[in-house]
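Predict the structure of Transposase.
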Amino acid sequence: MPRIQYTPQEYANMHFIYGECRGNANAAAALYRERYPNLRHPDYRVFIRVHGCFSEGRIPGSGVGGASAGRPVISNDEEIVLDEIERDSSVSTRTLARHTGISKSRIQRILKKNMFHPYHFTRVQTLQQRDYNKRLFFCQQMLAKIEEDPQFFNNILWTDESSFKRDGYFNMHNLHSWQLSNPRLMREDRSQYQFKINYWTGILNGKIIGPFELPGNLSGQSYLQFLQNDLPNLLEDVPDEVRENHWLQNDGCPAHYATQVRAYLNATYENRWIGRLGPILWPPRSPDLNPLDFFYWGCLKEEVYSKPIRNLEELRSRVQQAATKISQRRYARLLKRAFVRRCRICIRVNGRQFEHLL
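Done. Here is the predicted structure for Transposase.
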């Protein structure tokens, strides 16, 4: 089947848009369709070939520079690989080699030549349809508050609870050991002998409050006792003005929503708390908007689980050491900037998941 011929101006437009899209052929094809709705719409491979022509000093479709008339012909292997990638962009080079009979190294060279890159997926929170508007309204409300009072974010005591177990999260990608020869290292996991500790932590004006060990599973009654008896002691080092005027943030945990807890918050933090049925409503399923989730717990657990943990006391000691290390710096400016950015992106996507856009 003969290849479709384009005018010199069309080739120039394609090459210009390909550069505008930073070598992303799929994005270039989409932008071309949007910008020139009444012209013929080439698929992404045309943009790759046109760019290859100009890079080699040839003019597409003209035969200038020693090329034959028409567009440059790419190898059959290249056609096969690009077709497979178009059908399934998540296919591995190993699977491609098995299905096509082309060597893995040849496939990698073809993909590199055509400027394809292996991008990773981002894990995001599962949301329900009804969550979008609540997340959108929360972000709009918070940005308005921060615009009205630049210190508003820093006056919020952001809080969260998390469990630390024997076999917790650790990043195998960053875990390595420099050796002269391969020591065949291994790491035990998923022990039948399990133990865990529940911790509460807060962040107020960039200062880490805690972590504080909670007894057993959290309930409305135990959380109320924490608010009444333990939280005031944890805030002793906070300046009086900040302690008297700060806001308290809770997420959607059932213990935070208990009737007695809400009664205490309404009496103690009158119009100064964030949570379910609070003066400012915390949106459901939104750890991506809580600094404890998008910053603190990840840093803490990566430090805690960098080495295997043998017993409960070692876990408790490791948590305290990691917390002390993280607390040596104040993060007020960085956390506020990160939170505002997340709110703006959340608004831009109408309350949907946004962490893959950061």
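The first helix runs from residue 8 to 20.
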